[in-house]
Amino acid sequence: MKLFFFWLLALSQFQLLAQGTQTIPVRPASSWIKEYHYQDDLKDTANTSGGYYNLLYDDQYNAPLKESYHHYVQKILSERGLENISTISNIFDPSYEALTFHSIDIIRDGRKINQLTLGTFQVLKREASLERLVYDGNLTAVFNLHDAQVGDIVEYSFTVKGSNPAFGNKFSRLTYFNFSVPVSQVVFRLVTKSDHPFEIKKINSPPQESVTKNGDQIIYEWVAKDVPALLQEESSPGWYDPYDHIHVSDFGSWGEMGKWADNLFKMDDIPTGLLSKVPGVQKENKEQAIRKVIQFVQDEVRYLSFSEGIHGFKPHPPSKILSQRFGDCKDKSVLLASLLRELGLTSYPVLVNTGYGKALPDYLPSPLLFNHCIVQFSYHDSIYWVDPTITFQRGSLKELYFPPYHNGLVINKDTNALIPLPDSKEPTLFTEENFYLDRVGGSARFSVKTTYTRQEADNMRSYFESNSLNEIEKQYLNFYATDYPEISKGKQFKWTDDELNNIIVSEENYQISSFWVYDSLTKKNTATVYPRNLSTYLITPKTKIRQSPYSLNYPLNISQHIDVHMPEEWNVKPALTQIESPGFSYTNKTGYHDKIIELSFRYRVKKPYLEKSEVKEFISKLDEVSNDLNFSITYTAPEDLKGSFNYPFLAILLVALAISYFGFKYAYDWNPEPKLSSSLYRSIGGWLILPALGFCLTPLQMTYQLFSSVDYFEFYYWSMLTDPSYASYRPSMGIFALGEMIANFLFLVYSVFVIYMFFTRRTSVPYLAVIFYLANLLLQGGDTVVASLLGTEPDGDTIKSIARAFVGAVIWIPYFLSSDRSRGTFTIRTTPPPDQQQIYQLRD
């Protein structure tokens, strides 16, 4: 109703040829009509669309005569306008309306050219709503202008007599005073009887009316001049209407509306016996019977509307709908309510508006406010609401999805007000994706499991039932090909349907032959995962600086979990991102466990729309979410790093060795008192041969291990410590490798030092041996503990090494400290006190 000149329709899509018996009469206008003149003065030309300018938009209504007069004047500004308005068309319902034209003229250079003398009308049967399965029986009168030219003014007027018999003698009208195009003058004039005044409701800022009396008539008049264009912004809520308009109605109250609707629907007069014709209904289980009846009307009585004349508002008998198995929303609602009544339930049809529902209380009672019909019923002290035109709904009665219609009028003679309608429970969509990587730089196996509940399950059930398996697989494959061009189908797509709980689970499998992207310049392999399913719901308003609210996809609760199964241990830093905006909440949690990178996303819409002041922050936060979705895995292979010497580790090692020099010097100069023994030994012998052998083998063994199993001087270890761009980047592991290198090299040097001191039989050897065995045990055990904390489990050889170190310490530490052989062998001091030098010489 906000479309300007809605009768200017394209002549394509006509369904039937002209009816030869139908003609359009041409007569002078009735005497009750007032003539309004226009000015050829163009104001808001910057906002004209369609190549023409509207000079006059004049609507006049005579309620007692049931006549409406319309007078329109347009100026052609371009060839586009010439194409758009050189055909005049008007739609009317021949079952109760009579169309009469008064004039069709072209004004060119001040001269009027009467078009009605140059052509004739064609009357065509055109079903404008055929694509919505609605047959309204309307006719379209079409007149083609002769010799129309750019710069011409086109002026025409006509009268429509009659009103829908469903309204009786009631009158209701919504009239707008501004549109998406500019108009020089807008007129709305209404004539009624003095004893039959109207209620008038102003919405936004329409012009002030003038009211005059003429005998037994009351005449209302509204005139707006130089009306600029008002463009409706995209994605505004359906109930939001920024246009200036008035609502005129003589339906005195909602109670009167309820009685009017009850008289049309006649629910109390419907005969019983319909339920026996519905297959599969078992009355013994009441809830199952209710669900069966609902599913039958929704799925097996198809939607098809024959709404000519009174049947635009009055339903057909339910027995007819049941026998023919089709009907519109009114028909299906009456049928469903009748069947539920036969089950012993209290049930009524309910009038709603699918878009304007939230705004209904702001208007006067009127049949024009409603465009849809649903059903209310009571069961076990609870009230339920069902839309019988929705198909493939499943689940318990309490879980049935019900659209946000906001307000409704129950069709009952006792109704006296609109009633608020409930919101449905929040649907959920949960996607689990698993990427199984065979190797770095290789392919990946990709599986997807998606779980749908409530409304999402209903939607997917309809989709799966309406498409072939090949079509579904092709569409899904191309959906993921956006991210992975080398993707191919794996196992066959399958889906399971838990109708009782209304849960659908779908499973997909793919193979991605080229999962990684290799950059030869940086020598890095990169793979990216992305929550594609969730991202499709992140819609940014096209109009960012808004004057109207912005409608959101509500309710919506989407979760997506991605597991990337890596071929080797990986460096992943746990992270948590939380983004809150006026319209949504978002979380992204990153974790790592047992070679699996775990990504968990959640996006939840918090309310149905945003105020215009909230849109800017919403867009900013949505951009943050979009930037947070990508997760990239980068890998630089160790072989690419080899050949680059690890100079930083070498420098650190040299510094450590330099510092340790002072410790070795102190140990070398340390001359403890020799311990008394029963014998003095000039050479290594006895059981000391065994530790001597162990001391000598230790440097050889450590040198072999250091340079064969662990390449500390490869730059790879420095990248572990310092470069986050490498897959190997693990600062903790880098620190561990550095510490292990320093400790092992110092112990290697220490073992050589102990060998020298051992064979020179220094008095400090027993203590140095104790330090050797304890250090060996601590190095073996500490290395294993730290490695375990970093995720590397000890193997069998490691456990054996720790055991050997422990046994060696238990045996040899007491031996070196207490055996007579040890006391009698390690007796040499580098610089003995002068008074004892002779004693040491005699001992030697």
What do these coordinates show?
With 844 residues, the protein is α+β, with helices and mostly antiparallel strands. 29% of the residues lie in helices and 27% in strands. It has 18 helices and 37 strands. The strands form nine sheets. Strands 24, 25, 26, 27, 28, 32, 33, 34 and 35 form a nine-stranded mixed sheet that branches. The protein has an eight-stranded mixed sheet with strand order 5-4-9-2-1-11-14-13, covered by helices on one side. It is elongated.
Please supply descriptive tags for the structure shown above:
eight-stranded mixed sheet; nine-stranded mixed sheet; alpha+beta; 844 residues; disordered C terminus
Radius of gyration: 45 Å
Q: Terminal Cα separation, in Å?
A: 122 Å
Total of helices: 18
Task: Determine the mean pLDDT.
Answer: 86
How many β-strands, per DSSP?
37
Task: Indicate the overall shape.
Answer: elongated
Share in β-strands: 25-35%
| Low-confidence regions | 1-21, 836-844
Structural class: alpha+beta
Largest sheet: 9 strands, mixed
Topology:
Layout lengths: L51 E11 L4 E10 L2 H7 L1 E6 L5 E11 L2 E4 L7 E4 L8 E2 L3 E6 L8 E9 L10 E5 L6 E11 L5 E5 L6 E5 L2 E11 L17 E5 L4 H12 L20 H15 L1 E2 L1 E2 L11 H7 L1 E2 L1 H14 L4 E6 L19 E8 L2 E5 L20 E4 L8 E2 L8 E9 L6 E10 H13 L2 H13 L5 E3 L4 E5 L4 E10 L4 E3 L4 E6 L2 H4 L14 E2 L4 E10 L9 E6 L3 E10 L2 E10 L3 E2 L4 H14 L2 E5 L2 H4 L5 H23 L19 H20 L6 H8 L8 H29 L5 H25 L6 H23 L1 H6 L11 H7 L1
Parallel strand pairs: 1-11, 7-17, 16-18, 24-32
Antiparallel strand pairs: 1-2, 2-9, 3-8, 4-5, 4-9, 6-8, 10-15, 11-14, 12-15, 13-14, 19-20, 19-22, 20-21, 22-23, 24-25, 25-28, 26-28, 27-28, 29-30, 30-37, 31-36, 32-35, 33-34, 34-35
Helix pairs in contact: 3-5, 4-5, 11-14, 12-14, 13-14, 14-15, 15-16
